[in-house]
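thought: user wants a sequence for this fold. calling inverse folding tool.
action: design(structure=
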């Protein structure tokens, strides 16, 4: 393995410059090693690269069709669970107990749900869930 002197010199200069800029010596050393490794890898890739050849002709990709299992909404599975319980009238504390998660985690899920759906209230969430077939209007709280 032959090291190019220029790469080694640049790596050493990187370490010295970082130390002069009051960077912790560990970080200065890491920066120098990173410069050295990237310089060596790039040099080997550029020098050992084969001559450029024309790329093969591209064929059009088949049209993508939506997966039948893919949900038609932006919510994760856990967000749907939280949303349904919230829409059924449970408090964040009750949802947390039921799903065995902290109340703060429930509140975070609720905020993410509101942001994703661009809504601002629990009643709006219930309407959205009914409209998307995720909640039956007559669903009593669990």
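)
observation: tool returned 142 residues.
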């Amino acid at each position: 393995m032959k090291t190019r002197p220029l790469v080694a010199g640049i790596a050493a200069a990187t370490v010295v410059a970082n130390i002069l800029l009051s960077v912790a010596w560990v970080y200065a050393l890491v920066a120098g090693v990173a410069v050295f490794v990237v310089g060596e890898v790039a040099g080997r890739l550029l020098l050992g690269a084969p001559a450029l050849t024309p790329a093969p002709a591209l064929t059009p990709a088949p049209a993508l069709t939506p997966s039948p299992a893919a949900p038609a909404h932006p919510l994760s599975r856990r967000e749907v669970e939280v949303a349904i319980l919230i829409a059924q009238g449970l408090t964040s504390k009750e949802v947390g107990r039921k799903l065995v998660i902290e109340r703060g985690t429930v509140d975070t899920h609720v905020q993410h749900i509101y942001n994703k759906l661009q809504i601002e209230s629990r009643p709006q969430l219930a309407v959205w869930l009914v409209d998307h077939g995720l909640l039956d209007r007559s669903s009593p709280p669990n």
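thought: summarizing for user.
answer: Here is the designed sequence. The chain is about 60% helix and 0% strand.
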